[in-house]
Amino acid sequence: MYAGFPRLNVTEAQEAVDLDFELANEKGCVKATELLVPKVVNLSFPAVCALLYNARTATSSRNIFGSVIGLQLQDVVEVTDVKINPSIDIEEDDRMTEEERMERVRKERKLLDVDKAIFENMYNQENLDTNVIGQFVISSARFNPFSTRTMRKLQELHRESLPAILLTYDPFRTGLLGRPHIRAYTPTAAYYKYDSLVSTERGYQRRRSLAQYAKESGVTKEGVLHEIPVKLEVDAFHRLNLMNLQPTSIGDSFKAIQSMAVSNYMEALLSSIRNNTDQLKQKLDYEGNIKDNGNVPVGQDAETMLLMKHVRDQTDHLDALCDSTLLYSSMLRDL
């Protein structure tokens, strides 16, 4: 049932940061232009709280996006906060004319700009807006977090010699199955090389060169994204506070897998897999049917690779849920 769920460990005692080294040394976080591949992402207590707080408004059809704020020290990424992207909800009303609806949207955007200015000013005063190191996505398993827009923002961070961390959180898997689902990724060096090669070509020539570029960059071997283990930072002060809390007992996995909520969730997940596989099939069929295609392999585009990765994650998740359902059904039958 928990296949694909990451293990969230608590960080060990952290050594004090050598401020002089990080400030003056060429390999410090201030002057370094070539960062090491992160080995671990440490989520601070405020960052976890902010992530969970922002997830309250997420639904199966509404996803939450934002920036990850922190710092990379050598091969360790310290996440100190997450900053949500402001958004507005446009509700369709049949009684409104198009002009009335657009006027309401303009007024809402004006109010949103005022709130955003206040929010930005607060971050500017604390110098938090200068430490963006990635993007976060809060969504269900139905949504593909590896979107083109998100990957483009990670590329922009990389071009500015900043860490490019993608943090994903699934509140639905967490709530239904009772185990936190937080994962972190960073684009591979092969993907950056592949993207720089592909960006020089256009149209038909770009299509025929994809296989060559994929082989030259090694992206088909290394993949587009590299997953990084996530740890939660809990210091002595947090431990002291947690001692006074009465945690809710872990839910019964048997009751969870037999619940109507999980049944509906599995049905929605299956529908999403069907839609994604149809989309993937159409994309591959289109590439394969291009005239003068020759023997160029299909599926060499990074967007297609990310979609295949998402479908694979979805099918692994659904397979684990089905295995659990069969296991409990067989146990009940034997009893």
CATH-scheme architecture of the largest domain? 3-Layer(aba) Sandwich
Low-confidence stretches: none
Number of extended strands: 9
Q: Which CATH first-tier class of the largest domain would you pick?
A: Alpha Beta
Task: Please give the domain count.
Answer: 2
Number of separate helices: 12
Q: What Rg is obtained from the alpha carbons, in whole angstroms?
A: 23 Å
CATH homologous superfamily annotation of the largest domain: Cytidine Deaminase, domain 2
Side-by-side strand order of the widest sheet: 1-9-2-4-3-5-6-7-8
Q: For the report, how would you describe the main beta sheet?
A: 9 strands, mixed
Any idea of the CATH topology of the largest domain?
Answer: Cytidine Deaminase, domain 2
- What shape does the CA trace take? globular
State the helicity in percent bands. 40-55%
Q: What is the strand content?
A: 5-15%
Report the span from N to C terminus.
21 Å
Mean pLDDT rating: 81
SSE order, one letter for each helix or strand = EHEHEEHEHEHEHHHEEHHHH
Q: By helix and strand content, what is the structural category?
A: alpha/beta
